[in-house]
């Protein structure tokens, strides 16, 4: 599902070796890493990569709209490359595993007009919580 590297190439994102490693670490399905996790994985591939470089690249990817920031647990923000396919999150309350899920209804449409208080509602975030098979 995720095609982050292709999308970035298509947009002409300046791809230095360091920035490429950040994009590679984030590419994939069900990827929701904290900035520190991205840094730790990037260091495995490119030992000299600094935390600041990783944070800067993450900030750029978010402002480009190619990566979304997700807060699922009220702690560190997580970075999600699945930015072009609207989805919600299923989170294990024990180990923190996060899965991308696609509810069959439309959560945005499910909010009754009487509870919109005149707002123009543009987006919705739903977090499903429970225990994953390993923790259950
Ligand atoms: Zn779990
Ligand atoms: Zn996600």
From TrEMBL:
Zn(2+) binds at residues 92, 95, 132, 135. The keyword Zinc-finger does not apply. Pfam families: FUR. Its cofactor is Zn(2+). GO terms for molecular function: DNA-binding transcription factor activity; transcription cis-regulatory region binding; zinc ion binding. It comes from the Bacteria. GO terms for biological process: negative regulation of DNA-templated transcription; regulation of secondary metabolite biosynthetic process. Keywords: DNA-binding, Metal-binding, Repressor, Transcription, Transcription regulation, Zinc. Binds 1 zinc ion per subunit. Belongs to the Fur family. This is Transcriptional repressor.
